[in-house]
């Protein structure tokens, strides 16, 4: 979409005008995330730039909000809870989800469409409805307020992501490799772990990352299904934002942004690797 | 006699047709066995809870369970013949209440009926304390005793209410969710001051539409630009779309809370450059503006990604052909390019709308009282007012709306074609 030499002034104006508009929209997308990073180093308990900060006076900056995050027991317990719940939920979604995705990508699956609809539904049903239903049902069977209840709920929410990413990887999977392996004398287990798994691993890992993020970032379901002793990081942030907004939240937010940049890079690298393995030129 | 054609045989001597059928069946069973564990898991952890919610939206066992003899006796009572039920009903009520007080369930019933008629909860609490001391054998007749205890027991409306809510299932919660109520004379609208849910549904729809429209307005140019730039540049710019997509929802919501506050960054900037006086800072948060701005930002990537994937497939030669045939830029875009991007618009809009309509966290934090959605009301009924039946009914209505949209999405895009990142 480059500007041809014969463009009229109007076309020229639109060409640059359009770029300016797009630039403003990109600014709208990214600025709110970037603006909290410098604010988290504020030496005052304000949520806006102080005079010292604007003059780049070192006195205007400090790490005290980070210090609060790392020493305050509320935040530390929340972090620990998040890291107890998310990996367990991820493990469940990945284990069940990969198996099912392999089943679903077979040529003959009875009721494929209906099964797919059920498995994807946790992603579509609004979280508040999932949370309400789980709260009602889990309190009937004694899982409400239990660690295991939160893990099961989060695993259910993560499953659609695993199914989608793994089935997408399996589309490019060459079935004759499995037959070749069986032909050479490998049992089904050996074939799965030595042939199929390494090839679909990028899809499995990125599905797992999605599931992890879903659980790690989830607050509605844990608010209802969990109890105070399962308070996760998003929950702590939510109550912090609702009741007394303390600048420590900005420090936490900055740390989370850094983590998401790392995750984004990982997923992108995995996607390229997977495409290279399948012989598709990376796009 | 003509000789019959011999059926084809497989290596083991069985007819080929049957052999193929058998292997096909085995494949089907194998595939199903791989899916079965997950299916069972999702059914228990997710589908059963949803079913439970749907069930709770019509379930009404509490009256019949707490007052079994009374509901039985009330079947005989015809409000058109006598204004108040006869002694048999009051005697049954005395028995039931005594049992209910013992198991402490009468207050729960009281608060359940209080949703339909205010004052019942206190009546049940007060009566419970007194009935505890009654002697069931010696204190008959009970009708006068009840009327003595509280003259509300002589209110025909109360008895009609009890009779109305005796059945095990009720449409009462659903009627309540659409600002109607059940009366002995049929379904009637609620009092003006109690009508909130229709308004709330309308507001949820209106704001979700506004958010979808904003996302489309902002997302279309970005997707257009990304799909027309060289791959290297567009991949770089894509990061600006994907980073917000991957950033925690709460991080983005807190960012908006910081930006939009009265003492926040946006107001500060406007005051500094002199557009606003220090005294008339804009109210940008805790109202509809706050919700729409923050949610547009949060849902924008969900619009850009499907739009982009559709626009990538539109061959640039079509627009060039239109121009070489004499169309100017505007015509070429409107007649050739835009119609081909409509599937992307459909996919993105439905996706954003589905996500917006059930949002809870962001409206709760930046919506104040005027910028909240139906989901915030559902949460309120679950955790604060404890009217679970009403929460379930509101949830069921929302769920049905979303499922209809989901079906449309599946038809237009196909759920298998959902792409992530």
Indicate the topology.
The complex is a heterodimer of chains A (283) and B (421).
Chain A: H1 9-39, H2 51-54, H3 64-71, H4 73-104, H5 112-124, H6 127-140, H7 147-171, H8 176-183, H9 188-216, H10 220-225, H11 233-242, H12 248-277
Helix pairs in contact in A: 1-12, 3-12, 4-7, 4-9, 4-11, 5-7, 7-9, 8-9, 9-12
Chain B: H1 16-56, H2 61-66, H3 68-74, H4 87-102, H5 106-114, H6 120-131, H7 142-149, H8 156-164, H9 172-177, E1 180-183, E2 186-189, H10 197-228, H11 231-246, H12 249-260, H13 265-272, H14 288-311, H15 316-324, H16 329-357, H17 361-366, H18 374-383, H19 388-412
Antiparallel strand pairs in B: 1-2
Helix pairs in contact in B: 1-19, 3-4, 5-6, 10-11, 10-14, 10-16, 11-14, 12-14, 14-16, 15-16, 16-19, 18-19
Shape of chain B: flat
How many DSSP E strands of chain A? 0
Helix/strand-derived category of chain A reads mainly alpha
Into how many domains do the coordinates of chain A divide?
1
Multimeric organization: heterodimer
Q: Kindly state the mean pLDDT of chain A as a whole number?
A: 87
CATH topology-level name of the largest domain in chain B: MetI-like fold
- Beta percentage of chain A is under 5%
CATH H-level homologous superfamily name of the largest domain in chain B: MetI-like
How large is the count of helical segments of chain A?
A: 12
Architecture per CATH nomenclature, i.e. the level-2 architecture of chain A: Orthogonal Bundle
**Kindly, what is the distance between the CA atoms of the first and last residues of chain B, rounded to a whole number of angstroms?**
69 Å
The general outline of chain A is: globular
**Fraction of residues in helix of chain A:** over 70%
Please give the largest β-sheet of chain A. Answer: none
């Amino acid at each position: 979409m480059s500007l041809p030499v014969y463009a009229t002034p109007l076309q020229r104006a639109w060409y640059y005008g359009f770029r300016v508009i797009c630039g403003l929209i990109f600014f709208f997308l990214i600025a709110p995330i970037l603006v909290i990073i410098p604010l988290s180093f504020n030496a005052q308990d304000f949520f806006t730039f102080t005079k010292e900060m604007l003059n780049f006076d070192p006195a205007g900056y400090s790490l005290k909000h980070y210090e609060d995050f790392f020493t305050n027991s509320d935040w530390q317990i929340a972090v620990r809870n998040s890291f107890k719940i998310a990996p367990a939920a991820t493990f469940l979604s990945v284990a069940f989800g990969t198996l099912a995705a392999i089943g679903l990508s077979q040529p003959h699956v009875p009721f494929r469409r209906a099964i797919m609809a059920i498995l994807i539904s946790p992603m579509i049903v609004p979280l508040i409805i999932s949370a309400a239903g789980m709260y009602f049902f889990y309190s009937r069977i004694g899982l409400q307020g239990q660690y295991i209840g939160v893990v099961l709920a989060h695993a259910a929410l993560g499953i659609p992501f695993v199914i989608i990413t793994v089935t997408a990887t399996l589309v490019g999977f060459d079935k004759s490799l499995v037959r070749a392996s069986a032909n050479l004398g490998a049992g089904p287990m050996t074939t799965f772990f030595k042939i199929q798994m390494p090839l679909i691993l990028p899809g499995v890992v990125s599905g797992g990352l999605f599931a992890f993020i879903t659980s790690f970032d989830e607050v509605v379901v844990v608010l209802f299904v969990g109890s105070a002793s399962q308070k996760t990081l998003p929950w702590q942030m939510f109550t912090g934002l609702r009741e007394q907004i303390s600048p420590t939240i900005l420090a936490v937010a900055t740390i989370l942004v850094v983590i998401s940049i790392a995750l984004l890079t990982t997923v992108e690298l995995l996607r390229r690797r997977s495409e290279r393995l399948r012989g598709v030129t990376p796009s | 006699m003509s000789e019959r054609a011999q059926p084809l045989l497989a290596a083991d001597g069985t007819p080929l047709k049957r052999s193929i059928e058998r292997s096909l069946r085995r494949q089907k069973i194998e595939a199903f066995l791989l899916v079965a564990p997950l299916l069972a898991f999702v059914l228990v952890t997710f589908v059963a809870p949803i079913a439970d919610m749907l069930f709770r939206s019509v379930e009404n066992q509490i009256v019949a369970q707490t007052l079994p003899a009374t509901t039985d006796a009330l079947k005989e009572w015809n409000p058109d013949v006598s204004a108040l039920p006869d002694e048999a009903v009051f005697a049954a009520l005395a028995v039931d209440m005594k049992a209910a007080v013992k198991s402490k369930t009468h207050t729960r019933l009281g608060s359940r009926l209080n949703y339909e008629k205010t004052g019942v909860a206190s009546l049940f609490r007060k009566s419970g304390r007194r009935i505890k001391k009654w002697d069931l054998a010696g204190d008959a007749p009970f009708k006068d005793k009840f009327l003595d205890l509280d003259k509300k027991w002589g209110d025909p409306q109360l008895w009609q209410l009890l009779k109305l809510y005796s059945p095990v299932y009720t449409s009462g919660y659903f009627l309540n969710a659409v600002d109607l109520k059940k009366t002995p004379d049929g379904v009637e609208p609620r009092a003006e001051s109690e009508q909130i849910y229709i308004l709330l549904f309308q507001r949820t729809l209106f704001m979700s539409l506004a958010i979808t429209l904003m996302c489309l307005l902002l997302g279309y140019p970005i997707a257009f630009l990304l799909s027309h730039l060289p791959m290297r540049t567009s991949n770089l710019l894509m990061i600006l779309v994907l980073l917000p997509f991957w950033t925690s929802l709460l991080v983005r919501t807190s960012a908006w809370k910081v930006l939009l506050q009265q003492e926040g960054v946006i107001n500060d900037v406007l005051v500094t450059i002199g557009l606003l006086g220090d005294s008339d800072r804009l109210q940008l948060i805790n109202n509809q503006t706050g919700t729409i701005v923050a949610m547009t930002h949060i849902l924008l990537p969900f619009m850009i990604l499907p739009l982009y994937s559709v626009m990538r497939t539109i061959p640039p030669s079509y627009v060039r052909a239109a121009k070489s045939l004499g169309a100017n830029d505007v015509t070429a875009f409107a007649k050739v390019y835009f119609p081909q991007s409509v599937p992307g618009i459909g996919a993105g809009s439905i996706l954003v709308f589905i996500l917006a309509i059930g949002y809870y966290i962001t409206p709760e934090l930046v919506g104040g009282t005027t910028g909240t959605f139906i989901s915030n009301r559902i949460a309120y009924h679950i955790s604060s007012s404890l009217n679970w039946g009403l929460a379930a009914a509101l949830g069921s209505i929302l769920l049905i709306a979303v499922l209809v949209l989901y079906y449309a999405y599946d038809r237009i895009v196909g759920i298998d074609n959902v792409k992530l990142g």
